[in-house]
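Onboarding guide, step 5: your first structure request.
Type a short instruction followed by the sequence, for example:

Predict the 3D structure of this protein.
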Amino acid sequence: MLAMTDLTITAVRITMLRVPWPDTPWLKGHAFGETRNFLVLDVETKSGITGMGYLFLFRPGIKSIMACLDEVIIPRVIGKDASAVEAIWQDLWKTTVTYGRGGIATMAQSALDIALWDALGKAARLPLHRLWGHYRADLPAYGSGCFRGAGGDGMIAKALHYKERGYKAIKMQVAHVHSLATDLDNVKRMREALGPDIDVMIDVNMGWTADVAIQMGRKFQDYDVYWLEEPVAPDDFAGYFRIAEALDLRIVGGETHFTRFDLKPFFENPKLPILQPDPMRGGLTELRKIATVADTWAMTIAPHLFPELNVQLLASIPNGLWIEDMGLGDDLWVDPVPVKNGTITAPERPGHGLAFKPEILRDCAVSRTSR
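The system replies with structure tokens like these:
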């Protein structure tokens, strides 16, 4: 009988990265800030196996997450068995319950959780989708990031770029910077430009009230819109349900909600057919639980961003629907997970199979800590 690999956690390293945006017309000028901000967390174990987790933030906050990791999270996991992923998750959740249950504390916990699963997959010499129970290898991806700031012409140009690459669906933005009339005209023009065979998703990014979303949604229905995403603020569950009851098109959301507990009203009132949880808001442990509960209510999962990571989850569940691809990190990885002809294939490398390029870690690090 083979001896078990010793996954006792001996050290945790944290690196903050500021990475320039790639020189591409599809991101330059439309992204948040001048650089991409990443938190990279490495869990070292006694056997020499290292698991890596990471977070990507559009807005400031990484230093706060690093402080939470240093003060609260890391001291509780040194010396523990990295394979005890569930026990560690529960311990950290209970430890931070009086000031956590979301926000910075949960994001710090999520970075660690991703790293623990990576270490466990490497120890088992299995990709996560096989460790969890493989369902299918190939998932459809939709082209995201048709940014409202590019205007109608810019959004259409990017959508056509996705269409040329074989994507069968794109996502465009409305609200915040345009009038309602301009938003409607942009959707109309997008449908005309793409034709009838490409699905058009619309992201409001919490920019409207329920009344406005209902008013606009009724007009969007004339253009065969696939879904209306995050029409209202995340805590406005009553607004979500009003919109879903009033419209025929799909109402979706979930990327701004933390853990299955934050999503509980959607499960108790299953009016949203698709949920979009984010791995930064509970980790892979929570994503798997959300997917299971959603499947109980015949709801599907289309996680927020991180296609190279989320493909592991979707390849292991029966209700994985879409991968969101915005091209935010294609240049970062030693072994990228590309979308080809609108499809992403789960890699067979152990763990999540991701590693930042050495030159990225060397040249773009602005802060390092180790305990």
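Each response can be followed by summary notes, for example: The domain at 129-345 is CATH 3.20.20.120 (TIM Barrel).
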